[in-house]
Amino acid sequence: MYLDPGTGSVVLQALLAALLGLGVFVKLFWGKITAIFTKKNADTPVDETTEEQI
Amino acid sequence: MGERISSSFRDPSGFLFVREGTLLRQVNRIYQQDYDLLFSSGLYDQLARENYLVQHEEVEEAPLEPDTAYKVIRPEKVSFISYPYEWSFSQLRDAALVTLAIQKEALKAGMTLKDASAYNIQFQHGYPVLIDSLSFTKYVEGTPWVAYRQFCQHFLAPLALMSKTDIRLSQLLINNIDGIPLDLCSRLLPRATRLNFGLLTHIHFHSRTQSRYADTSKANGTDSSAKQPTVTKNGLLGIIESLEATIRKLSLKISGKEWADYYSDTNYSEEAFETKKTIVHDLVQTIKPQTVLDLGANTGIFSQVAASTPDRFVISTDIDPEAVELNYQQIKKSGQKNILPLVLDLVNPSPAIGWNNQERDAFYSRGKVDVVLALALIHHLAIANNVPFADIAKTMVMLGENLILEFVPKEDSQVKRLLRSRDDIFDAYHLPGLIDAFSPLFELQKQVPVSGSQRTMLVFKRRQSI
What global pTM score does this model have? Predict the structure, then answer.
């Protein structure tokens, strides 16, 4: 490591990581949940036009 | 034998040197593990596939400093080295986004960028690429991104200032070689940017924490080796995605003032404009240059004319950052790979900067071209800026072998406009006067009147005796 990361910059990263990391976690988690449903739906393709008519 | 490149000294991992005209990079033993990991992790191949990293090959050359050497590599030659203060907004933005994309790929491969310098990015074949293969190091879970501050200073700060305050503030990078200080950026940004989450955190809070922890004894007590705060991998990805989203949301409002709308505002009729295109095309074609420097290129219409064959490389410069922005957006859209638009003020061209003034070269010392294009430029230099013809000739001869110059006479409405509000002190401003002043350095090869206008296209060749 030849750059000085800067103490203030590291402290801020720790704070932001706690905040934004949650978002990444939720996104991953959400991705997994929606993957389950899209998988289920994939078996029974929905005809969009009929959906709209309903 | 060989000479170390004067800017290549900060990172102990290795350095660049030139031997018999070939650019080589010595990789030091201290960097051996990381260098090997770049390949064994598959990261090099992935980045090469994505066209994010300039490719290199290992060569059997003797190292310049054998005591510390691990390997010698030869990187692919970059067509023309340019610096962030010469880039338009979108060029800097694309350079920033590619840096973040590289960091994401690196993290996937268990590595991380140990620097995020804008000077490590160059435009090659129309795209921004990382030119430093030694920028990667093994990622250790829980550690922060060492280059976060550098990224904010080199990329986010100038982009935010260009977008939210004034496009011309990119020039602050000339005075700040390690990027724009965040406290300065924070002060120059409008108050409303505090409502933008990305700018609030990465610029305003960042600046605040920097000054708060500037005195390390306050931060860590007296023990400077105190434990570093943990940054989880998801947290790190969150920060990178936040930087990415912030930068993607920054935009530039093109006002269309000054010369950006020049082409709709000339005395050229559509027909004369097409004639001028044909003349330029034919003149360039007879010289068959490999490299062209288009000075005062505006949005690059004639650069495109000059770049008609793909093996020709055209550097397309203009003083107006908005014109350069439009130029870049156009070539990006059309996929043209052999034009490099750059911001350049001919009256005050990019100087040499950095340690001993040898880190970043002056624009004029970055190599000669085969043809210099100076179309509808002479009146801006000679009249608007009072530069005598003889001095213009000296600059032109320094830049290239051939010169295609469009003479714009006093009768032309563009010149009349420049003279409207000032005394006409330019007695020698006429075609014979120009040819006379250029003749000690240049041989006049051709003189073509541009029909439908009062202008004349001149082709000069540098005298062999010079």
Answer: 0.91
Contacts with B, A 23-52, CB within 8 Å: 23-25, 28
Which of B195, B222, B253 finishes a domain? B253
Q: Which residues of B touch A14 (CB under 8 A)?
A: 144, 229-231, 235
Residue in B254, B310, B312 with CA at minimum distance from that of residue B287: B312
Same domain assignment for residues B335 and B310: yes
Q: Does residue B5 surpass a pLDDT of 70?
A: yes
Which of chain A's residues have a Cβ under 8 Å away from the Cβ of B219?
7-8, 11
CATH number at residue B431: 3.40.50.150
Chain A residue numbers with beta carbons less than 8 Å from the beta carbon of B228 are 10
Nearest CA in chain B to A10: B144
Size of interface A-B (CB pairs under 8 A): 105
- Closest-CA distance, B376 to chain A, in angstroms, reads 46
Q: Say yes or no: B308 and B239 in one domain.
A: no
Domain housing B353:
256-462
Cα B121 from Cα B130, distance rounded (Å): 5
For B158, the token pair is: 């100038």
- Per-residue pLDDT reduced to its tens digit, B421-444: 999 999 999 999 999 999 999 999
- A37: closest CA of chain B, how far (Å): 25
Is the pLDDT at B221 greater than 60? The verdict is no
Same domain? B119 vs B265: no
Tell me the pLDDT tens digit for each residue of B345-392. Answer: 999 999 999 999 999 999 999 999 999 999 999 999 999 999 999 999
Of B340, B330, B342, B426, the C-alpha closest to B386 is: B426
CATH of the domain at B200: 1.10.510
- B182 Cβ neighbours under 8 A, 6+ residues apart: B149, B152, B153, B157, B203, B206, B207, B210
- The pairing of beta strand B69-75 with beta strand B22-28: antiparallel
Cβ separation A9–B232 shorter than 8 A: no
Q: Which of B287, B243, B206, B29 is nearest to B116 (CA)?
A: B243
| E strand segments, B77-212 | 111-113, 121-124, 127-130, 136-138
Q: Which of B65, B31, B46 is nearest to B103 (CA)?
A: B46
Q: Complex ipTM, two decimals? A: 0.85
Residues of chain B positioned with their CB less than 8 A from the CB of A16: 201, 235, 238-239, 242
**Selected residue of A9, A11, A15 to mutate for chain B interface (largest B Cβ count, 10 A):** A9
Please check whether residues B228 and B299 belong to one and the same domain: no
Q: Which of B190, B221, B253 corresponds to the end of one domain?
A: B253
Verify that B94 and B166 share a domain, yes or no: yes
**Chain B residues near residue A26 by CB distance under 8 angstroms:** none
- Mean pLDDT over residues B290-298, rounded? 97
State how many domains chain B has.
2
Question: Quick check: B234 and A21 CB within 8 A?
Answer: yes
Q: Are residues B147 and B264 in the same domain?
A: no
B156 in the same domain as B72: yes
The whole-number pLDDT of residue A47 equals: 45
Q: Are residues B59 and B122 in the same domain?
A: yes
pLDDT value of position B222: 44
